[in-house]
Design a protein that fits this description.
about 20% strand, five-stranded antiparallel beta sheet, binds flavin-adenine dinucleotide, about 475 residues
C-alpha cells in the first residue's frame, strides 16, 4: 500500500510538472482551431472565477466542439503531463469547477457540446450534449409537453449536473439526477471514449459503468453526452407557504401532507426566519410574503403537482381545504396560498442574499429527516452557549433531510470572532453533523472546499476504495479537483 501511495504521489507531481504554455496552446490549436483555445487573460477570466468569487488561473481554456475533440485534448494533456479540470455551467459551489492558482491546469469547457438530440416521446427520453444548459433543455421540452424536473436557483449544464449528481427542490418526488440518467458518454483520462448512450430503463448486462461518473465531480472522466429520462409537464402546480408551530413539528406536518397527497407532493422546502429576513434586507425589491415584524421563526414552502388530467383539476381547490385542516389540527399556525410566485422568488433569493452578507459561513449537510430537528436544536445550543451573537440562517430541502446550514456573524459582534475562532466553529459544526449521523456534503460534492471534511469524516476503508477506482481510471491523477485519496 505504501509503495502504491508513493507511486500516486509521484504521478500527481508529474501531472502538474511545469509545461511551456505557448507550446501547449499551439498544439491545442492544431486540434481545436483558433477559436477553441483561449489564452488571453481577459478571455479566460469568466472561466476562472466561480459563483462564490473564488478564482484560479488556467494554463489555457480549451473549448472542444465534439466528443472526439475532447478525447484529443485529453490525449494531449497526457502527453504534456498537464492536469485538466472539466467545467460545464460553472455553478458548482465547492470550488471544483475552476482550476487551481498554479496556472498549470488546463480547463476544459463543455459549453460547445450543446446539441439537443431528438426527443423520444414514447420512451420519455432525450439525448443531449454535456454542455446543454438546463434553461435551454426546459424550453425545448416545454414545446412538446415534457419537463426535466430539476429546479435549482441556477442554470447549470447537463455534464455538470451529472458530475455533481444534482438534487434540487423536487428530489423528494423525482429523485436526484442519477435516477434520470439512462445512458451516458464519457471520455477517460487517456482519451478513451466510453459510449453507453442507451435509452434503457432496465439493463443488467454487466456492471453499470455509467454510475461511476455520476457524482464523481469530474475526477474519473469527462462527461460529453447523456440520455436523460424526462417527465410529462405538470398540468397543474400549486404552492403554499406554511408556518409550523415549531421546527420540531415539521416531520409531523410532512407526514400528514404525504398521507394526504402521496406523489402529488413534489416540494417541501424549509426557510429559517433569519434567512428570510436576510433576503428582505439584502434584496429590497423582493415582494414580501410576510411584513417585517411578522417573519416567523421558520416557514415551509410546499408544491403539489399533477401531470395526470384526472387529478389536476382538483388540486387547487383541495389545497384550500387542506389549509383549513392543517390549522385545525395545529400542524400549521398560518397557511398562505395567494401569491405563489412571491413564495418561490423568496426561496430562490435566499442563497443569493446570504452570499451578500459580509461574514457568512455555509454548509450543505444532510440527515435522516427525523434527525434534522434535533440537529438544529444542537446547533442553536452551540451558538447560544459558545458563540453568542452568531445567527443561524439555514434553509434547505427538508423532505430530503437536506439543510443548507448557514451562520451569519452580524457587524456588532464581528470583532469577537477572528478567523481562527470561526474555523473552530466550522469544525464543531461538522462534528455535530457527524454526531447526528449526517453527511458533510449533501448535494454539492467534495472539491477543495470540503476536502478536509472528506479526510476527517470519510472512513479510511472507503477512501482507499475511492482511491483504487481513481487509480484504475486516471492512474496519473490528472483529472478534476475532487479528493479521492487514501
Ligand atoms: C444559486 C445556486 C443554487 C443551487 N442549488 C442547488 C440545488 O438546489 N441542488 C443542487 O444539487 N445543487 C445546487 N447548486 C449547485 C450547482 O448548481 C450544481 O451542483 C450544478 O448541477 C453544477 O452543474 P454545472 O454545470 O454548473 O457544473 P460546474 O459548476 O461546471 O462543475 C461542477 C463539478 O462537475 C465537474 N464537471 C463539470 N462538467 C463536467 C463534465 N462534463 N464531465 C465531468 N465533470 C464535469 C466540475 O469539474 C466540477 O467538479 C446550486 C448552485 C447555485 C449557484
Amino acid at each position: 500500500m505504501a509503495a502504491r501511495s508513493a507511486l500516486v504521489a509521484e504521478l500527481r507531481s508529474s501531472a502538474s510538472r511545469s509545461v511551456d504554455a505557448g507550446v501547449f496552446a499551439a498544439r491545442a490549436r492544431q486540434l481545436l482551431g483558433q477559436e477553441g483555445v483561449l489564452t488571453d487573460g481577459a478571455q479566460r477570466a469568466p472561466f476562472e472565477r466561480d459563483y462564490h468569487g473564488r478564482s484560479g488561473r488556467a494554463l489555457a481554456v480549451l473549448l472542444p466542439a465534439n466528443t472526439p475533440q475532447v478525447a484529443a485534448v485529453l490525449q494531449l494533456c497526457g502527453e504534456c503531463c498537464v492536469a485538466a479540470v472539466a467545467q460545464s455551467g460553472n455553478t458548482g459551489l465547492v470550488g471544483a469547477s475552476i482550476p487551481d492558482e498554479s496556472g498549470q491546469q488546463a480547463l476544459i469547457s463543455l459549453r460547445r457540446l450543446d446539441t439537443i438530440g431528438p426527443l423520444d416521446a414514447a420512451n420519455r427520453s432525450i439525448t443531449l450534449g454535456g454542455g446543454v444548459r438546463m434553461s435551454h433543455l426546459r424550453a425545448h421540452l416545454a414545446a412538446d409537453g415534457f419537463w426535466f424536473p430539476f429546479d435549482i436557483a441556477a442554470d447549470p449544464c447537463v455534464g455538470g449536473m451529472i458530475a455533481s449528481n444534482t438534487g434540487g427542490s423536487h428530489l423528494m418526488r423525482y429523485g436526484d439526477v442519477r435516477g434520470a440518467v439512462l445512458g451516458l458518454e464519457a471520455v477517460l483520462a487517456d482519451g478513451t471514449i466510453v459510449n453507453s448512450l442507451k435509452s434503457l430503463r432496465k439493463d443488467n448486462s454487466g456492471f453499470d459503468c455509467k454510475q461511476l461518473f455520476i457524482g464523481s465531480g469530474g475526477a474519473l472522466g469527462v462527461i460529453t453526452g447523456a440520455v436523460l429520462q424526462v417527465q410529462r409537464r405538470p398540468l397543474a402546480r400549486v404552492s403554499a407557504l406554511l408556518v409550523p408551530p415549531t421546527h420540531a413539528d415539521i416531520p409531523e406536518l410532512l407526514s400528514w401532507l404525504e398521507r394526504r397527497y402521496g406523489d402529488l407532493l413534489i416540494s417541501f422546502e424549509g426557510m429559517s426566519g433569519e434567512a428570510i429576513r436576510c433576503a428582505y434586507r439584502e434584496l429590497p425589491a423582493l415582494r414580501r410574503c410576510f411584513s417585517a415584524d411578522e417573519v416567523p421563526d421558520y416557514a415551509v414552502l410546499i408544491e403539489l403537482a399533477s401531470s395526470g388530467e384526472f387529478q389536476a383539476a382538483a388540486l387547487a381547490g383541495d389545497l384550500r381545504t387542506a389549509a383549513q385542516k392543517m390549522i385545525e389540527l395545529s400542524l400549521a399556525r398560518e397557511v398562505l396560498t395567494d401569491d405563489e410566485s412571491a413564495f418561490w422568488a423568496l426561496r430562490d433569493a435566499i442563497p443569493q442574499a446570504l452570499m451578500k452578507s459580509p461574514r457568512v459561513m455555509t454548509f450543505d449537510v444532510a440527515f435522516a429527516r427525523s434527525a434534522l430537528p434535533p440537529f438544529r436544536m444542537a446547533v442553536k445550543r452551540l451558538l447560544e452557549t459558545r458563540y453568542p451573537g452568531i445567527r443561524l440562517a439555514d434553509f434547505g430541502h427538508f423532505a430530503d433531510g437536506g439543510d443548507h446550514l448557514t451562520v451569519l456573524v452580524p457587524d456588532d459582534c464581528a470583532r469577537a470572532y477572528p478567523p481562527l475562532k470561526l474555523m473552530r466553529l466550522r469544525v464543531e459544526l461538522y462534528d455535530l453533523v457527524a454526531e447526528h449521523g449526517g453527511s458533510f456534503s449533501a448535494e454539492h460534492g467534495i472539491g477543495p472546499l470540503n476536502e478536509s471534511a472528506y479526510r476527517r469524516y470519510m472512513p479510511p476503508e472507503i477512501r482507499r476504495l475511492h482511491a483504487s477506482i481513481k487509480s484504475l481510471l486516471d492512474p496519473a491523477a490528472r483529472l478534476g479537483r475532487q479528493a479521492a485519496a487514501p
